[in-house]
Amino acid sequence: MRVGELIRTAEAEGREKHVPVIELMDCPEPGCTGKVVKVTVGKEVPHPNTVEHHIKWIMLFGVRGGVAVHIATFDLGPTYGAPEVTAHVNPEGFSELIAVEYCNIHGLWEGSLAL
Ligand SMILES: [Fe+2]
Asked: How far, in Å, from the CA of 28 to the mean position of ligand 1?
């Protein structure tokens, strides 16, 4: 089995709490002309955030020429680290953004945003 076969998407049960939602927006900081990516897990239905059940990490990639390019990794602690993260990003040359997250109970989940 390949790890890709274990990554769940928007078709799987539990998607409302797990599929990462990616938003690309202008940076709100005064004077900044760049872009910001926001990734939210549990945007539709909040995901539990306890020691027993939480989102452990979120990884963000850009797709360029059919290759996944790492943009950022967010390592979250339960209870205090909510699964909503942002990063400045230069989306130039990317055809898509992909986020993968890991829930300690429900495994790997993926969401994407076509650019
Ligand atoms: Fe979960």
From this structure: 31
Q: Judging by beta carbons within 10 Å of its beta carbon (0-12, 13-18, 19+), is residue 6 exposed, middle or buried? A: exposed
Helix (H) or strand (E) holding 84: strand 84-89
* Domain extents in the chain: 3-114
pTM for the whole structure: 0.94
Active site (catalytic) residues: 16-18, 47, 53, 103, 106
Instruction: Using the mean position of ligand 1's atoms as its centre, give its distance from the Cα of residue 4 in Å.
Output: 18
pLDDT tens for the 115 residues of the chain, in order = 999 999 999 999 999 999 999 999 999 999 999 999 999 999 999 999 999 999 999 999 999 999 999 999 999 999 998 899 999 999 999 999 999 999 999 999 999 999 9
CATH superfamily of 3-114: SOR catalytic domain (2.60.40.730)
103 token code pair: 């829930």
Task: Give 113 Cα–ligand 1 centroid separation in angstroms.
Answer: 22
Six token digits for residue 18: 């797990």
